[in-house]
Amino acid sequence: MKTEEFSYNLPKELIAQTPLEKRDDSRLLVLSRDSSGSPAFAHRRFHELPEMIRPGDCLVLNNSRVLPARLIGTREKSGGTAELLLLREHGNDCWQALAKPGKRIGRGDTLSFGDGALRAEVLEVRGGGIRLVRFLYDGVFLQCLSRLGQMPLPPYITKRLDDPERYQTVYSSQNGSAAAPTAGLHFTPQLLDTIRSGGARVCELTLHVGLGTFRPVQTENVEDHVMHDEVYVIPEETARAVRETKSAGGRVVAVGTTACRALESAADETGTLSRLAGSTKLFITPGYRFRVTDALITNFHLPESTLLMLVSALAGRDAILAAYAEAVRERYRFFSFGDAMLIV
Hints:
Blueprint: E1 27-32, E2 40-45, E3 58-62, E4 64-66, E5 70-75, E6 81-91, E7 94-100, E8 110-113, E9 118-125, E10 130-137, H1 141-148, E11 174-177, H2 189-197, E12 201-207, E13 230-233, H3 236-247, E14 252-255, H4 257-266, E15 277-280, E16 295-299, H5 306-315, H6 317-329, E17 340-343
Parallel strand pairs: 1-17, 3-12, 3-14, 4-11, 14-16
Antiparallel strand pairs: 1-2, 5-6, 5-8, 6-7, 7-10, 8-9, 9-10, 12-13, 13-15, 16-17
Helix pairs in contact: 5-6
């Protein structure tokens, strides 16, 4: 497959720059699949989602929480500007990070943030601008990061975010992501309670969103793209809920591509969740056979992105591109702070 096959035209003004005042006021494009392969669309609001979740379904959320992972400081030797985007913790105060300017930050260099309140020693130089760094500080690292770090918003968002909690889901609890699992940004506690009271299960897993969110597919052929790896944990109670839902004929509804990847990565050939923690490089493209995910709640994704390829694998490329064209015509808001889609 050619990467260009997953492109579409998007007017710049449809890229959402700020979140809505109320999370669940966002629009919801419902894409229904049928045996004929012809997509059917319905235009709803996200607060109407409980009407589309059936008793016996299982809604799976990604509870990862975004770190204020963007640090801007100086290179101690030269005094020049340095930036780190923290991607993954390695233990013993060591982190994998994306460094800028990559060509000027080498092994043995030390970076300073907050006038030296937090310092980072470069231990290894890895490909693609990645560095392994060890942090030096007094006190508690996460408190230092909270004080000195910035929320790592995607580059297409150029407006200031006044409330950083709007780039967190209301159920986020596990620190570790470099970007939000944005499909979950539409939920409120009340909406989740309504879904539970309607007879569906709501359960959680953790997948920490990493570098791949910031890196588009740059190869001509989809198959040549090297997928990023991300760490996930699926609690036993979630695995049990998924097994029982499947056994009873209910649907597993993944909230976001991250939850979907974690579920599919943990499943064996029979669709049973057999590996409840690990690191995944699973690249889901058209032709993939889904083992666990029956339905998906997702935002609208960038052209030629791995996420657009994943939703195309679930619904079909032609159906997804038709849905995106419909969303453009109807002036939906796109990307992280934009509107949502339900694929059933």
